[in-house]
Amino acid sequence: MKVATYNVNGVNGRLDVLLRWLAEAAPDVVVLQELKAPDARFPVREIDKAGYGAVWHGQKSWNGVAILARGQNPLLTRKGLPGDPDDEQSRYIESVIDGIVIGGLYLPNGNPYPGPKFDYKLRWFKRLHDYAAELLELDVPVILAGDYNVMPTELDVYKPERWKDDALFRIEVREAFRELVGQGWTDALRQLHPGERIYTFWDYFRNAYGRDAGLRLDHFLLSPDLADRLAKAEVDKHVRGWEHTSDHAPVWIELADKPINKRRK
């Protein structure tokens, strides 16, 4: 199974890019972020013509997440992250596809630091931490994929010294990510590329993509049984070079049908 995550930065404005990539990459499952469209404006007909069923959780102008499944309709299990009934931001969606629970998320940016947006980010991270622990207790295959808006280590950012007070790289946020992974999740891309400098995001400004001045913001966290099946984890970097593309590139993993790795202690 090939599963991808992609921050499209506007699903309608960049629909041509999304459809081109779907035709080229043919993922079985895709988690999308930053739809920037209310539910009624999600391009369900175009997605259906491309061969994908979809569930989505939209929001006018901002945020928005979706899950696509090739040749089938995802079974929707949740819209919104538990823990704050007053939170109206569309940042989490969950479905079951082929027996796997797939949570798609768009974690808050949190800038500027310090401030209320940063505080909201930490609260959201805490809610994710609590809910992720519940998912692990179910002892079912789970993927938590999306734009986490955090560079976990210095290897994940082109100039770490310039980012120390940015909400994407603050020590509190990096520690929250470490605590989340420490529950028993596997960071798929880092698991297969432990020492490589790999990015998933390049700003539109200052020729960031041309200079490869990037950040690794988009992550796959796998439950233990799926970590055992992890065969590949890559970034479709070339998509970031397309015309009118997102500032993120698609990230994808391949899962084998049976365990291929020894269970990590």
Task: Describe this structure as you would to a colleague.
The chain is an alpha+beta fold. The protein has a single domain, classed as Deoxyribonuclease I, Chain A. It is built from seven helices and 14 strands. The strands form three sheets. It has a six-stranded mixed beta sheet with strand order 3-4-2-1-14-13. Strands 5-6-7-8-12-9 form a six-stranded mixed beta sheet. Helix 1 links the parallel strand 1 and strand 2. Helix 3 runs parallel beside helix 4. The longest helix is centred in the middle third of the chain and has 22 residues. It is globular. Its cofactor is Mg(2+). Belongs to the DNA repair enzymes AP/ExoA family. Keywords: Hydrolase, Magnesium, Metal-binding.
Structural class: alpha+beta
What share of the residues does DSSP label as strand, in percent? 25-35%
Number of helices: 7
Q: What is the CATH superfamily label?
A: Endonuclease/exonuclease/phosphatase
Q: Please report the total strand number as a whole number.
A: 14
- Which class in CATH terms? Alpha Beta
The 3D shape can be described as globular
Query: What name is given to the CATH topology?
Result: Deoxyribonuclease I, Chain A
**What is the topology, as strand order, of the major beta sheet?**
3-4-2-1-14-13
Low-confidence stretches: none
Biggest sheet features: 6 strands, mixed
Structural domains: how many = 1
Helix/strand order, N-terminal first? EHEHEEEEEHEHEHEHEEHEE
First-last Cα distance: 25 Å
What is the average per-residue confidence, as pLDDT, rounded to a whole number?
A: 97
- Percent range of helical residues: 10-25%
CATH architecture assignment: 4-Layer Sandwich
